[in-house]
Automatic annotation (TrEMBL):
Record organism: Rotaria sordida
Signal peptide from the UniProt entry: 1-18
Residue ranges occupied by any Peptidase M24 C-terminal domain in the UniProt entry: 573-634
Keyword Manganese on entry: no
Region entry Disordered, spans: 635-694
Recorded superkingdom: Eukaryota
Sequence similarity: Belongs to the peptidase M24B family.
Protein name (database record): Uncharacterized protein
Amino acid sequence: MFVFILILIIFSSSFVNGADQNTCTPNSIQKNTSTILSNLRREMQNEGIGIYVIFSDDEHGSEYTQLYDRRRDWITGFSGSAGIAVVSLRTAALWTDSRYFTQAEEQLDCANWLLMRDRNPGVPTLINWLVSEANQTALPPGTTTVFTTTSWWTSANTALKEIGKELRPVNDLVDRIWPAGERPNQSQNSIVTHEIQYAGETVAQKLNRTTNEIKRRGATTTVINALDEIAWLFNLRGSDIPYNPFFKSYAIVHANYEVNQPELFVNLSQLNTNQHPPGVRLFDYSMFWSRLNITATDTNISRIWVSAKVSQAILSLIPNNKLLLPLSNSPVQRIKARKNPIERKGMQDCQIRDSIARMKHLGWLEQQLNDGKSVNETQSSEQLLVYQKQQVIFQFPSFRTISASGDRAAIIHYSATPDKARLITKNEVYLLDAGSQYLDCTTDITRTHHFGSPKNLEKRAYTRVLQGVLDIADAVFPTGTYGRSLDHLGRMHLYRDGMTFGHGIGHGIGHFLSVHEGPQRIASAYSQYEEALADEMFISNEPGFYKPDDFGIRIEDDIEVVLANKSTYDNTQYLRFNTITLLPYERSLIDVTLLTNAQLNTINQYHTKVAQVLEPLLSGDEAALNALRSRTARIDLPSTTTSNSPSSTTTSNSPSSTTTSNSPSSTTTSNSPSSATTSNPPSSTTTSTSPNRAFMSISSPSLITFVLILIHLF
Ligand SMILES: *[C@@H]1O[C@H](CO)[C@@H](O)[C@H](O)[C@H]1NC(C)=O
Ligand SMILES: *[C@@H]1O[C@H](CO)[C@@H](O)[C@H](O)[C@H]1NC(C)=O
Ligand SMILES: *[C@@H]1O[C@H](CO)[C@@H](O)[C@H](O)[C@H]1NC(C)=O
Ligand SMILES: *[C@@H]1O[C@H](CO)[C@@H](O)[C@H](O)[C@H]1NC(C)=O
Ligand SMILES: *[C@@H]1O[C@H](CO)[C@@H](O)[C@H](O)[C@H]1NC(C)=O
Ligand SMILES: *[C@@H]1O[C@H](CO)[C@@H](O)[C@H](O)[C@H]1NC(C)=O
Ligand SMILES: *[C@@H]1O[C@H](CO)[C@@H](O)[C@H](O)[C@H]1NC(C)=O
Ligand SMILES: *[C@@H]1O[C@H](CO)[C@@H](O)[C@H](O)[C@H]1NC(C)=O
Ligand SMILES: *[C@@H]1O[C@H](CO)[C@@H](O)[C@H](O)[C@H]1NC(C)=O
């Protein structure tokens, strides 16, 4: 599942309209927001602001928020995870990205709201629109700074400065108008200790490592608002945020933590006294702001390190001369990302449990289809949960399962709803992207299946994606390498066929924390907050290919960064990956003729290992064993390709690379089945063999234009 999204926006001639200027007629799903808006505007005027911006974030910049915090959803009626609402005294608009256009068209109260299809031609950016509205409004614009990121605040203010305006911080106005009877209750479940047998390290050890880092940078104190960092640092877990074992909290940690003990802010009635972490001063959650103010004005505290992701509310309380600048990642993030030995063992062990659940589910699904019973996407994900729950110390899914059949698999962030769930059939691909939270780890695994005879293009795309997975897993690189330098390895084989995909290849994975964590990642775009890969980190390896309205492929393994050898030349430490996921690939979707000999060997070795580990653990479940055995049986080269098999050729990785311009193997004669073109795919004018059809249809500019946009969702 993804976090860094290169969104593929597809414009066809019927879909180039810009902002939706009230062309809709309200439907029955759409909520009538007239009263909400008039109440909000009344509060805005009371506060002396003319425009109010409502984000979907909670106070902690959480990836998932609890229902109580879904202010933007309630104000607009739109429930997609990404969207920002702007209400002025005369109009209201919602910005969302292409993943959510359809959902927003359905849900947004179009009598009162403009739908701003972000990055479509003719659609103003939120900040440009804010400036032009503010230019015509006497009262200043405002936001609630606990929900506003410092980076947004800074860019908006920079733009507003040109018209002589400035954002005004205001209290949470939605809070004032959301009737208690309509608002979901806050989730405030018990907070419990994350036992040392799973955590592998005491709070004191973690504080020591964190404060060493703080001292190294010359800071005296850090202020933390990220919920995963607090849960990790204090060995505590909660259950207030969907898919994440988190509880709302802040922390202030001083470099001299043994004398000046760290301050932890939680709802004290959620934390039983016998669960109090040792050596920590506890305060009620509501005390955070006054304690932060005291910290910020304490003359003994000279340098405060905050993450670039803290809210503007926090930043605004810290005098500029006390900030560690430039803002960077929190000191906890990198330490947490490099797992200790117990955490690493947990991450590896639970992959086996998760794979057992996945194989039992796969066996069940295959059995249903063979028996002619129909299974829809929702039912399939519900059944997966049944098997996940059978695994020891399973807690809950780590994100909403993506269970997608046929053309739905092409929708990257698809989430099936029971009433519209599609059937899983033997004639189409089935993509299952699911993850678990166990007490000893977090997982995130994707497999794309086919239960009948896949089309050539599906096989070709699957194999190209798989080659990317294998080449990433096979990478060797010196310490200090950033994930962005490896991204190409996951796409190179797809590129040979003119294919690519609109998301990153890898995100860090937490340890019974968030399924997405930094500071490492594998994605091509530059981010100033990306940090180099290091041993003991875990990351996903998930290339894909999506052909809209037809099919989608994604394969995702979880991998661990481990030490390779040191260079015998200059003693540089090298790193490599270790794939920890143990789940077979889909044999029926593999086009062996595209693989190099080395790739084929890797698959066979992997399947041997998967079978060895899982077979004994699945005994008694014939359906699961069948599903396992049929997929892990040795794959041989087809006899018809003896003369042009990958093993017969060169050292080049590319049996299918046949162009003279882009392949080191160009001087060899390759007879591989895909060697149809004699030029680079983009300029190919040759009679196309079936493998090239995919590229031709996608590249045809008269039909579709692809625009690649980087959205940094963190
Ligand atoms: C929405 O509610 C307002 C106030 O209750 C009402 O005047 C208006 O007619 C409603 N709009 C629609 C489309 O039902
Ligand atoms: C702001 O309004 C003034 C006066 O109407 C206009 O001249 C100016 O171009 C506007 N500026 C922007 C940035 O819209
Ligand atoms: C919210 O809490 C109140 C009391 O604190 C309770 O009466 C009410 O039923 C709860 N609402 C929901 C939706 O759980
Ligand atoms: C804290 O870390 C330092 C540096 O790694 C180490 O020397 C020291 O023993 C540690 N102290 C404790 C109490 O763990
Ligand atoms: C703290 O949590 C308890 C439930 O554990 C809840 O009843 C109480 O209202 C919460 N207090 C605050 C200030 O939110
Ligand atoms: C912070 O403390 C100072 C005095 O120490 C006080 O003037 C100011 O109002 C406080 N700010 C907040 C937001 O509490
Ligand atoms: C600053 O440190 C000194 C000496 O350690 C101490 O006496 C003083 O109380 C501290 N000041 C504050 C505001 O904590
Ligand atoms: C899909 O299956 C679920 C669970 O069995 C069921 O509730 C739902 O109605 C089904 N959806 C459709 C469209 O048939
Ligand atoms: C490391 O070096 C040893 C001995 O030189 C060699 O056998 C081994 O294959 C190397 N390991 C890797 C991962 O390159």
